[in-house]
Amino acid sequence: MRLYHGTNCEITAIDLRQCSPNKDLGRGFYLTDIKKQADYMALRRQRQAGWGEPLVIEYEFDERLLTDRSLRVKRFEKPSEAWARFILNNRNSDEFEHDYDIVLGPIANDGVALQLRRYTENLISMRTLVRELTYRKLNRQYCFCTERAITKLTKI
Description:
Elements: E1 2-7, E2 29-31, H1 35-49, E3 55-60, E4 73-75, H2 81-92, E5 102-105, H3 112-120, H4 126-133, E6 141-144, H5 147-150, E7 154-155
Parallel strand pairs: 4-5
Antiparallel strand pairs: 1-3, 2-6, 3-7, 5-6
Helix pairs in contact: 3-4
């Protein structure tokens, strides 16, 4: 399968130590199988950084590895309470670390921090949190969290 990474600069080697902590699916290298989504992320990253050019880097990945049990894979098919709690744990705790090689699932909407704060302050229910985190457009993200997983990506 083809996966895409939207960025503002060329990547010669993936270095997980350079990846930001406290992201939705944990610290890792994020990709998508939706080219249009990667185009948007590249433009967004360039605008946030204020330098570079929007760039989409393509990788090849053997999708059979998602089910053959050679890698520890966590899959969220759609927004759910388990998905929302996973995001909550990754976003709000420096101590929380999962042991998955790859985590895949929907992208949360852009108001994640606000919604998580509303939930932790008991202003909204878990059901409302799931609804509010749900991004309304077609989307999917793959977080490659370990060196073992990174070695399975081939830059095109």
